[in-house]
């Protein structure tokens, strides 16, 4: 996985409307009209944003007759949005960051990634 690929995913999220769409579909499925009503935007604009999110692999869709419903592609989307919110709170000072632990002796339950000159790869264990 390249750093460029990661940046493309972050760019897809880095729009206020797309962020709000992702937030909405990370908890439940929504149709385009529902999202347009929820965000106070035109259906055509929501459809364009959804196309960008779908191209980035962040949302999936299913058809039910003439309607198309969207949801987050996987649970990591909601986790990324939550982490972005926490980090923003820490950076802006609206949330106090937690105290660092005195000793870190935890088993890491998620993949560890290593950034290596333009590419990211799983850490070897």
UniProtKB/TrEMBL annotation:
The entry's keywords: DNA-binding, Transcription, Transcription regulation
Residue span(s) of domain HTH arsR-type: 1-92
GO MF, any single term: DNA binding
Keyword DNA-binding applies: yes
Transcription among keywords: yes
InterPro entries: ArsR-like_HTH, HTH_ArsR_DNA-bd_dom, Metal_resp_trans_reg, WH-like_DNA-bd_sf, WH_DNA-bd_sf
Name of the protein in question: DNA-binding transcriptional ArsR family regulator
Organism: Nonomuraea endophytica
Taxonomic lineage of the native organism: Bacteria, Bacillati, Actinomycetota, Actinomycetes, Streptosporangiales
């Amino acid at each position: 996985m390249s750093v460029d690929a990661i940046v493309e995913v972050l760019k897809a999220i880095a729009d206020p409307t797309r962020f709000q769409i992702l937030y909405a579909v990370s908890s439940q499925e929504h149709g385009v009209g529902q999202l347009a009503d929820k965000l106070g935007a035109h259906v055509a604009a929501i459809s364009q944003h959804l196309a960008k999110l779908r191209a980035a692999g962040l949302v999936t869709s299913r058809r039910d007759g003439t309607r198309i419903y969207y949801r987050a592609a996987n649970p990591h989307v909601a986790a990324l949005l939550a982490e972005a919110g926490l980090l923003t709170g820490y950076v802006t000072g609206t949330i106090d960051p937690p105290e660092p632990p005195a000793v870190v002796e935890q088993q890491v339950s998620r993949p560890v990634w290593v950034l290596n000159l333009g590419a990211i790869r799983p850490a070897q264990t």
